[in-house]
Structure formats: structure tokens, C-alpha cells
Amino acid sequence: MGKTVIGTNLEKEQIEMNISDLSLRVSIYGILIEDGNVLLANQFGGFDLPGGGLEMGETFAECLEREYWEETGLKVTMGDIVDCKMNFFQFREEQPYQSILIYVTCKKISGELSKDFMTQYEKDGGGDMPEW
């Protein structure tokens, strides 16, 4: 086995990953605060900030707008970048990632909370209504 790193899986267990197996994944997550509450997506067995993977050719703002719509039913605009993290992660039995996670503020433009626009992948992950 070549050089390895320690990462985590969905169950938050530490796992060893071969560097040659890693794929780079950039993700954007939006922080939306309303009446002192933060909106969280409800999927994959827990709660997290709405957001997800950047697709090729997509800007940060486009990614955030698409992911927010899919996971919450809300139209948002991107604000400032507030944090950036890096981790090693393996989701289910998929290829492991070296993940760059970018956290931004966002502002609601329109919409009502809904799970109707989730992708099949998100639905398969137990996607449910987002919550404040």
C-alpha cells in the first residue's frame, strides 16, 4: 500500500485511505439565519448546512443557489466566504475524497421550505424537510 491518510466515513468512524484513491471535491455550504435560527438540511442521517459539490464549469454562487434550491426549496444569493476547511471523507462505498469545504453567508430571496426538489441521490440518503 502506498502513502495513506486518515479520514472519516458517514458514521464518523476513522478510516485509512490510500492517497492514490482520493478524488478532489470542492463543496459550498450556505449559512442562512432567520429570526436567530440557522437553517439546516435534514439528510444522510443527520443535520448539516445546506450545500454540496461544485460541478465543473459552475461558480461558487451557482453551486450554492442550485444546492440550496434542491435541499430546501429556497432561492438564495451568496454573501461572504466565512470559513474554509479541508478533510478526507468517504461517503458510503464511493471513492474517497480530499474535500475542500467552503462556508458562506447567504440571503433568502424567495420560496418556502420544501423537500420536493431534492435529487434522487439526496432522497436515497433519507432526505427530509429542512429545519430551523
Automatic annotation (TrEMBL):
Its cofactor is Mg(2+). Residues 23-132 form the Nudix hydrolase domain. Pfam families: NUDIX. Gene3D superfamilies: Nucleoside Triphosphate Pyrophosphohydrolase. Keywords: Hydrolase. Transmembrane segments: none annotated. One of its GO terms (molecular function) is hydrolase activity. InterPro entries: Nudix_hydrolase, NUDIX_hydrolase-like_dom_sf, NUDIX_hydrolase_dom. It comes from the Bacteria. PANTHER family: GDP-MANNOSE MANNOSYL HYDROLASE, MUTT_NUDIX FAMILY PROTEIN. This is Nudix hydrolase domain-containing protein. It comes from Candidatus Magasanikbacteria bacterium CG_4_10_14_0_2_um_filter_41_31. The lineage of its organism: Bacteria, Candidatus Magasanikiibacteriota.
